[in-house]
Amino acid sequence: MRRFLLSALLVASSFAADAQDRFVPVEQRLNAAQLAEVGLSPAQLQALNRVLREAESAAPAPAAVAAQPAAPVPANVPAPAAMHLGLEEGPVTARVVGDVAGWEPGTVFTLDNGQQWQVMKGQMKLRKTLQAPQIEVIPGIAGRWFLQVDEDLPKARVFRLR
Which of 73, 80, 137, 161 is the most buried (most CB within 10 A)? Predict the structure, then answer.
């Protein structure tokens, strides 16, 4: 799977026009679940981004691709949310819409600020259901985020849906 994704990224990168100023890092091309599935370390991601940036800057833009107009985006497709905010971004503090009795991979938390976060790793069954608890979503290293319901409870690893 890792070879397939790397090959697909290399092929896609060879068709980019104006590569140096239009380069998009791998972390922005894949969502959190895809990045976790690939399982590259931060050093490997950095090396892959460097190789892709060099390949794009060396490849001439194909005339046929450059001349084609961009396909219109359907009106009903929402714009993707920023998935990998850096550590310079602070924690997100908000209230959960609804009750929280626990979580497991796949659980989606909808916050009162409109964000939705889905659990990737971690599970917890609470002794008592919490009604609209105040939570904090904390940034970690390498684009990881952790949802904390209470500082005494384990955190769930999450990724942002919207």
Answer: 137
Rounded to 5°, angle at Cα 71 from 15 and 10: 20
Q: Determine if the pTM surpasses 0.90.
A: no
Contacts of 45 (CB under 8 A, 6+ apart): 25, 26, 27, 142
Q: Which residues contact 162 (CB under 8 A, 6 or more apart)?
A: 78, 81, 114, 115, 116
Q: Write out the two tokens for 54.
A: 């060099």
- pLDDT per position as a tens digit, 45-81: 888 888 888 877 776 655 544 555 555 656 666 655 5
Residue 81 to residue 42: CA distance in whole angstroms: 22
8 Å CB contact between 20 and 53: yes
